[in-house]
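ZP: hey, is the magnesium ion complex queued? I don't see it on the tracker
AM: it wasn't, my bad. submitting now with these inputs:
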Amino acid sequence: MMVNQHDILQTPIEYLKGVGPLRGQLLRKELNLNTFGDMLYHFPFRYMDRSSYIKINQIQEEGAYVQIIGRITFFEIVGVGRSRRLVATFKDDTGLLELVWFQAINSIEKVVEQGGNFLVYGKVQKFGGYWNMTHPEMDKLDSVTPEALPAYQPVYPSTEKLRAKGLAGRTYVKLVHNLIQQLSERDLLEIIPEPIVLHHQLMGRFQAICHIHFPKHERDMQRAVHRLKFEELFIHQIGICKLKLNHRKQAGFYFQKVGEYFNTFYKEKLPFELTGDQKKVLKEIRVDTQTGVQMNRLLQGDVGSGKTIVALLSMLLALDNGFQACMMAPTEILAQQHFAGIKELLKDIPVVVAYLSGSTKGKDRKDTLQLLANGTIQIIVGTHALIEEKVIFKNLGLSIIDEQHRFGVAQRAKLWDKNTLPPHMLVMTATPIPRTLAMTAYGDLDVSVIAELPPGRKPISTVHRPEIYRAKVMEFMRHEIDQGRQAYIVYPLIEESEKLDYENLYAGFEQVKQYFPPHKYNIAMVHGKQAQSEREHNMQGFIKGEAHIMVATTVIEVGVNVPNASVMLIESAERFGLSQLHQLRGRVGRGADKSYCILLTTPKISATGKERMLTMVNESSGFAIAEKDLELRGPGEIDGTRQSGAAELKIADLIQDVGLMEITRNAAIALLQRDPDLQENEQMLLRKFLMGRKDKEIWSRIS
Ligand code: ADP
Ligand code: MG
């Protein structure tokens, strides 16, 4: 087979010595290893340290991983079907250990048949009075002393199937070894520009690949890991920062003036004085929309910081300049609340506001689409139904996305295509973003922050109580209500068990009535399954103060503003995520009175559940809570991360390596500032590498 030197990393995995079509297919399917390059970048997750081993009588702890040298004195295959297994007796001069295999029995049989000395490694368990080890890693020693083995043997992420087919452990290690043997420095040319390699004292690329798979010393291994993490994050950041640069080059609409819509609303209808931060953000938006370049701005502000009014004023600015504006929210309920809220605020101003979601059907939908296309509708509020292709604007000038963390970068981009020039983009998130996410999922956006809450907000006391305290909690709530306050009681609602959740909600409603007899207390119930009119009616009852208590699902998570409410009771709080709990808590503490958030849970909750409750009790800052959330859930679970590709990082860790991410981001920015299209010689290999990647659109779009 002819292999071009430069292409060796692209060689199909089948061509590797010892692989072939069958194994090749398995490796592709199980580990997504398609090429030599993929295999080189499939890293070990730990190493077996060959330098330390123990005697059998030194085994102490069940579940410990140990390494032992001994001899197989007997073996047999026992059982049938799923319990068919190979059991071997393994001895050293101090005792006996049983080795057990359930899978790959035939190939193991051949190995143990030959006899001799072995080094075994694995987890020990006590079974019927003996220590045993299931599916140990084995090395045949013969006359070789253990010192002659490599000090660190790599252990790779693998799958059940590969283990069953005998293509894990030693066999796989051998394949990697074969591959690296046939490579030289020329096959893995340095892609990080030399000045950066030098400045950060990085190990070379080829060396790093050799050492991460087969390190001779711990220090080599650590340097290799560092280098490869750097490479991964640097490449990632180059992509994101390039996207940001591209945004900056994207021509955008010029919002020349502040006109009548804005001024009338601002001077006559604004229900309160804007906070300093709200004014500052508006100014930033004003500046952005006057540069002739498309705005791509993230507005970050804690729950209740007043982002909506900023959004509305920005939309009026678009209208003043003859453009349409849209606002997209992640759920129907939130979108409807925005729609209702905006209509209310604009009620005496002649602006045509419309609503569109998946449940807008038939004639209604047809009319809306038509009025949108002919420019009659000036502001449209809706769900992601807005990004569908059928939705055509006459002249969309500004798109606002609320709760951005539930939309991906790709969805954001779809709004770009809604006009000949892409509209200005303002994305708003109520969840303050951890630093890592700010550099990844949102790394291509300019950031505005509202740090200051509207005046008069009081700190909220948060407590966590097991359910057995419910009577006491209700008593406390009654006391507050008897003082003239109002309260929320929230039940979880998660889609998988929706039916059950509604049963819980109704059962809860009945229970609440027992504590608050209907002849004396008025209780409103609000949830997503109600007809809109009923929900609206009940909500209004609470807003006007006619209802003392609102029993609800997370419908109220966003948007509701009742300053007189001073208690937020969350049932089964362990079932909510941290950011959701924070959102819910943000519904109280808006008036002059001291407010309380009570988290009720079952007495037995998981360790992370407990930690979530503790975080809520101790932290009031949305920022700290978001950081904790990321730590507890892991980056893959956080909305927005997956879409950004950041969750696909192979070796770097979004949480642990935040420092390194910052360093690589700065290096990427500095490089792109000097050489935005990576045209210089020094960057040739990097550019070539990027062009060969899946996400190469970022590069082809500009050059
Ligand atoms: P969020 O940032 O969470 O979307 P909202 O925009 O819903 O917050 O605002 C929260 C509440 O604060 C709303 O009831 C809004 O009317 C009120 N609000 C916003 N800005 C101010 C302000 N400058 N002064 C007083 N109240 C304000
Ligand atoms: Mg909001």
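AM: back. The longest strand covers residues 65-78.
ZP: great, adding it to the tracker
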